[in-house]
Design brief:
Helices cover 27% and strands 29% of the residues. The radius of gyration is 15 Å and the shape is globular.
């Protein structure tokens, strides 16, 4: 879930392909299809798995409901085949993205997402990265 990255809980993303370029900036979108029930299930899982301080950083559904189908944060990344030690968030893929300098946007921006790595539309890219 993008909320874990946006809140600074998840610093590693595990993917099947190496991005080109292997180092740079990226933006995160939230799934348009997520709903309150799915988020409640996620929070129940997170409460069992996360340390209390990490769990406390997770916002309530009402705070993230408006993120659906929108770009919510940007960050720097560096991808490689080298897993963190110990490996975390391992979804079984060979490529590890180290995500740093995560910045929430002041306002989420409607943006049609796609699975995997894809280029932001030029108008969205200008709006997001010119504000930095």
């Amino acid at each position: 879930m993008a909320v874990m990255i946006a809140m600074g809980i998840k610093q590693w993303e595990n993917r099947s392909a190496t991005p080109i370029p292997v180092k740079g900036r990226c933006a995160m979108t939230c799934s348009k299809s997520s709903d309150a029930r799915e988020y409640a299930n996620f929070l129940a899982w997170a409460e069992r798995v996360f340390k209390p301080e990490a769990f406390a950083a997770l916002p309530a559904w009402e705070a993230v409901e408006g993120w659906r189908g929108k770009l919510v944060a940007v960050c720097d990344y560096e991808a490689s085949y080298t897993a963190p030690n110990p490996p975390v968030w391992n979804e079984g893929y060979p490529v590890w993205w180290h995500l740093t300098n995560v910045r929430l946007l002041d306002e989420p921006i409607p943006c049609r997402g796609n699975v995997g790595m894809w280029r932001l539309p030029e108008d969205v890219c200008k709006h997001v990265f010119l504000k930095e």
